[in-house]
Amino acid sequence: MPIQDLDESTSLTYSSLQLPSRQVAPLVMRGLVNAINQKCRIEVDYVSLSNPDGEGRIIQPHIFIKTGLRWHLRAFDEKHREFRDLVLSRFGGELELLDKATHQGEQDQGWNTFVNIILAPDPRLSSAQKSVLEQDYQMQNGQLVIETRAALAQYLLQEMQVNFKYRDKSPEAQQLVLVNESDIKAGYLVVKEDLGRIPVNKVYWFYLPYLQ
């Protein structure tokens, strides 16, 4: 039985971690839901760490995403001329529905492309330690292959606590490493050179800023 299914057992005595919730105004949610359902452009107020004072933006949303601790809105950002993930709790003010969207979810290449993330135990671990992780994740031939949307790859790696940019000095703390790192970086370079030649089996690294 997968561990995530254990809470469905009525006979299991357990406790779960309570994480802090982020608040979203009902008025904001109604506006965003309407924009998605009606496939409309919408003008919003949005704050970020790079712009904490906030700014008005026009976006074309197509789906909500739950990424562990946070909820995001996937939308075409007209200011940056690309599809982006926007943190749901950072919307505020009054939202205004505009005319019909010109960019739909079908045009979001990062969302519609699936990639394989290949994880393995840190090679610095002993054989016995590697076996523990292989059992934890039911690895095949010492590897865990996870298919995910390219736009969600960064969240998957965050949830798996895999960060190859700053590899932990302790292999017991690092535990997992990204095996196909070179393929991913190669895909990133191709995208940067020519946005019209995005390889189907590569991750779009311009969606993964914390790994660059």
Automatic annotation (TrEMBL):
Q: Which PROSITE patterns match?
A: WYL
Q: Give the superkingdom in one word.
A: Bacteria
WYL domain span: 30-91
Coiled-coil stretches noted in the UniProt entry, renumbered to this chain: none
User: Which InterPro entries does the entry mention?
Assistant: CapW_CTD, WYL_dom
Q: Which residues form the DNA-binding transcriptional repressor CapW C-terminal dimerisation domain?
A: 114-184
Q: What is this protein called?
A: WYL domain-containing protein
